[in-house]
Design goal:
- This protein is mostly helical and 485 residues long.
- Helix content is 45%, strand content 9%.
- It has 19 helices and 11 strands.
- A 3-stranded antiparallel sheet has the order 3-4-7. It has a two-stranded parallel sheet with strand order 1-2.
- The chain is globular and about 80 Å long.
- It comes from Rhizobium rosettiformans.
- Catalyzes the attachment of glutamate to tRNA(Glu) in a two-step reaction: glutamate is first activated by ATP to form Glu-AMP and then transferred to the acceptor end of tRNA(Glu).
- Monomer.
Length: 485
């Protein structure tokens, strides 16, 4: 594998809580850069304007900094090839799109959303895979010019060969061949003038002189589109490396619907960033049993990108717990341990703000642990009996918690105000008083019917911890409701 002048990047989208899979891909790129004396770059891919937020971008930065990874170029540190946010690069993409239109690598598409949906319905009914049918591919140049000049809404699509296959070499999978007939005529430029991921990705990688693109295997099928764009622009593609996805023990994709996946969740529960990076780094190296406890420097030394496994990276929480325990016991001095505990307890102001909330609710300081301890607990020991004293029936309690868990995902900015607003809106939609909806949530997040103010507590715990506690509550309530049927 050629490694001269290495420049690699991690390019997350700020559309939600940073996923542990982002740390997994980021670590690979970081190890690759450090191994070969290259540059590791952070780029924010925020072309999805409806879901990207400044809060989520900050969470991405905070989460990656917590892992201990550092980048030489990025939106927060600048660099010679900025801006490092795609939303700030809008004017840079159009000349590349125009070049592809001029040389026949792309075409204008005027199809309405209604026509596209009708097309997809017909394809589904015929048992065909969804894909653009080429309706606007052969419009005469005069008609295209006239319709564009008239201001008719349109997008720009990639022209794809109809025969043969795209053959390329992947740094992990080796030689790959994908038939062109399975590649969609991807939208490159949206009607609002913003590029799609595929166009922006290629242009940005070219302009930022990225030499190696390492990302998850789910992007392997997109390589033909990217190679076509490079070809039509007369550019040399980077080296592609597609890493196996992180999976659960049952080989299913690691998903927040099944397990905690947010980096912030592992931070909140008191995992050390060094232990998490150690755990993730083991997927990229070959070691003997007994050599698992490794620092970042040792991971870099043992890293070998030419000897990667295509087998799924199994996220074994028990192994992570084991490694974290060893880091706590073997890698920290007593003084370091105390300092880490204090830093962890004050993360997100949980300790200080929690104590402030508890002040008006205690008569003795000794009452603080059972009242506010849930803010620092890994879990609150929920069982069906935890919900036994509520006025709502098990079925109604389950309905409330299930509805709240799903609807809280809609909150873009997670704070006391937005949480209260959403819970009041949920109560209205369910046709229930807020005082009926909140008691089950008190129990779900704190393990007790006597607790600190709910909205403040949920804000301090953070979205990822609340999500997991509600999930555990649903499991307990499902068992409780089932027992009564």
């Amino acid at each position: 594998m050629t490694t001269s002048g290495v420049r690699v990047r991690i390019a997350p989208s700020p559309t939600g809580e940073p996923h542990v899979g982002t740390a997994y891909i980021a670590l690979f790129n970081y190890l690759f850069a450090k191994k070969f004396g290259g540059e590791f770059i952070l780029r924010i891919e925020d072309t999805d304007a409806t879901r990207s937020t400044a809060e989520f971008e900050q969470k991405v930065l905070d989460a990656l900094k917590w892992t201990g990874l550092t980048w030489s170029e990025g939106p927060d540190v600048g660099g010679p090839y900025g801006p490092y946010r795609q939303s700030e690069r809008k004017d840079l993409y159009r000349p590349f799109v125009d070049k592809m239109l001029d040389n026949g690598g792309a075409f204008h598409c005027f199809c309405t959303p209604e026509r596209l949906e009708s097309m997809r319905e017909a394809q589904r009914a015929a048992g065909k895979p969804p894909g653009y049918d080429g309706h606007c591919l052969h419009l005469k140049a005069e008609e295209v010019t006239s319709r564009v000049a008239a201001g008719e809404p349109h997008v720009v699509r990639l022209k794809v060969p109809t025969e043969g296959s795209c053959d390329f070499h992947d740094g992990v999978y080796g030689d790959v061949s994908i038939p062109w007939e399975s590649v969609d005529m991807q939208v490159l430029l949206k009607a609002d003038g913003m590029p799609t991921y595929h166009m922006a990705n290629v242009v940005d990688d070219h302009m930022m002189k990225i030499t190696h693109v390492a990302r998850g295997e789910e992007w392997l099928a997109s390589v033909p589109k990217h190679i076509l764009i490079y070809k039509h622009l007369g550019l040399e593609p980077p080296v592609f490396m597609h890493l196996s996805l992180m999976r659960n023990h049952d080989k299913s994709k690691l998903s927040k619907r099944k397990n905690p996946t947010s980096i912030s969740y592992y931070s909140a529960l008191g995992y050390l960033p060094e232990a998490l990076m150690n755990f993730l780094g083991l997927f990229f190296i070959q070691i003997a049993e007994g050599e698992e406890l490794l620092t970042m420097e040792e991971l870099i030394e043992k890293f070998d990108p030419d000897n990667l496994s295509k087998a799924g990276a199994i996220f074994d929480i028990q192994k992570l717990d084991w490694l974290n325990g060893r880091w706590l016991r073997e890698k920290l001095t007593p003084e370091d341990f105390v300092a880490r505990v204090l830093d962890w307890a004050q993360e997100n102001d949980r300790l200080v703000e929690g104590l402030k909330l508890a002040q008006s609710r205690v008569t003795k300081l000794g009452e603080l642990p059972p009242l506010a301890g849930f803010l620092l607990a890994n879990d609150v020991g929920l069982t069906p009996a935890s919900f036994g004293g509520l006025k709502t029936s098990p079925a109604e309690t389950l309905e409330i918690v299930t509805t709240v868990q799903a609807d809280l995902e809609k909150i873009l900015e997670w704070n006391v105000t937005t949480i209260e607003e959403e819970l009041r809106a949920i109560s209205d939609r369910m046709g229930k008083k807020l005082r009926v909806v909140t008691p089950p949530l008190f129990v779900a997040v704190s393990g007790s019917q006597r607790s600190l103010p709910l909205f403040d507590s949920m804000a301090l715990l953070g979205r990822s911890v609340v999500r997991q506690r509600l999930k555990v509550a649903i499991q307990a309530l499902t068992a409780m409701a089932g027992a009564q049927n």
